[in-house]
Structure prediction request, 702 residues.
Amino acid sequence: MSSEQQYIELYQQAREVIFSHAPEAMNAVRDEAFEDFRYQGFPSKKVERYKYTDMQKLFAPDYGVNLGRLQIPVNPYEAFRCDVPNLSTSLYFVVNDMFFHDEKPKGHLPEGVIVDSLRNHPEFISKYYARLAKTSEDAVTALNTMLAQDGMLVYVPKNVKVDRAIQVINILKATPSNAQRQVPDLMVNRRVLIILEEGAEIKMLFCDHAADDRNFLTTQIIEAYVGNNASLDLYCLEETHHKNVRVSNVYIDQGRDSRVNHNVITLHNGTTRNRLDLTFSGEGAECGCYGCVIADKQQHVDNNTLITHKVPHCTSNELYKYVLDDKAVGAFAGRVLVEHGAQKTSSQMTNQNLTATKEARMYTQPMLEIYADDVKCAHGSTVGQLNDAALFYMRQRGISLEEAKLLLQNAFINEVIDHMQLEPLRDRLHYLVEKRFRGELNKCDGCKLCK
Amino acid sequence: MLEVKNLHAKIGDKEILKGIDLVINDGETHAIMGPNGSGKSTLSAVLVGNPLYEVTEGEAYFNGKNLLEMKPEDRAHEGIFLSFQYPVEIPGVSMTNFMKAAINEKRKYQGLEPMNAAEFLKLQREKRKIVELDSKLANRSVNEGFSGGEKKRNEIFQMAMLEPKLSILDETDSGLDVDAMRIVAEGVNKLQTPETSCIVITHYDRLLEMIRPQYVHVLYKGRIVKTGGPELAVQIQEHGYDWIKEEIGEE
Prediction:
């Protein structure tokens, strides 16, 4: 009980500091978020959507929060070189929860497209910020809204297509390289606001990396407004280390005939909790929500999704796959809600899991809730082991047991990765996944800060 | 090549092989026939090391090496190949990757460098011709969506790629039409050399007319009860197994 107390006290004591280092428009919703947080507290495991992850425990340790917005000197361009070959992206950095400003020209963005710190765009904050992510409905969203002081804005005007993918590297770094004294473990509160006007198109790739060996607690809220006939690809790749806790809430609202492709990949982490709330507000829209998890040791990954079909003629596809080794724990709870009148809904939810040891645990809970009478909805879930017959067949051909397992696990996970639209990224992920299974990927690959 | 002495094996609590003795020399082809449930597939499974079966007694030596102590993959590396009665589908693993892994693991076992991509593709192309296998199948997942005939031809294709010393064909003719059977049999014949041997498990003499074994064994209730030349297969085709059962004093 009462992990929330330290955050309540922090806010009461440091309110002035928080306000003075944050844009006014973000401050406008802060007190209300605080009240919502104080009222709710962290959810216990009795709260349906938090059944599988103990939030009290995650938020109990004492983390430092960089409320004074001290810059941690780092040049991410030098420290990080993206090694996704053939993928030319427009590269941005978020260091902890601060948008990294630099003088480099971003010549590749079409006119009117904004990729910038939220701070510089109060007009968007007041119109869109904290609307989808309702602080009254989720304690972590409330906590993030009450503490977030910076964030990232992505805006694509009407009918503009951004060809180059936008890659955002989230770097976690607690210790300045020249630090003399020990710094505390760090809590960061990231915020992303994505607005696509009618007919706009963008592909975004978020990569989470940890640049030093501290304990990190990250909360992250992504709000995405996808306008009529707009198209959003949102890929989130997590490749950190076992001292990381990440709680991410993603909110997406889809307009008429829009398309969303969301893919969340957990390659390395400590404890991860991903929540996705996606709502169809306009007819004819479709989404693909995919996730893959590779976890071992004591890792814990919990994906919780809610897809709401408010209107008719929308299509949702969900596929989450887990491979759990050692004592890893996985959870998937997905709910598809087809509201009254949302006729001709088509929905498919699938969760498939492999547990490699007797100690690995998988909790799976696919749910359908349907209030319309002319829909096509299906859900299914499996938990099992690798196919013994296939393993033996491969061994008879001379493939060692280890290699055979690897090929089968790879094949299992690749079904998710193959849904990615960016081909170079897909190839890269195939490579990373294979390395991960071989145990050659201990921390983030390609993130030089780790070394 | 292969020397099996008094081999007993069980699955679960059920003893299936009850003392098999079999010697196969270099260059020989042996057929194994017998009624359903007599232990033919079990014998092949035990020889390749299927973990479902437990050997309770007896010995098996392959070119002087104790076969029963080897892992299945090492038996393969030593040169034993099984054409499965029911080839397994492996969704998501392409034929090419599967074959590449198999070849390179064998080369590693032999202390050779992995085969380069160009060489591998060339080899694959050559061997595919032997069983007239469509090149489109190379990009598909292993056996997934293959027809019955394609699966069996795919087995022989793999045999051609791996160049085993001893091939065991477990009912490779079952489910094949006449043309497919001819292709398979011709494929097997092309791969025969004076240094390689073959065990053909079958119910019909049709395949044996094309593959021509020197010896035909009848397996019944876990033992080899009769051994003869090719004429034995013809007799079985005409008269069934009852006369053999009578010979050994059974109803």
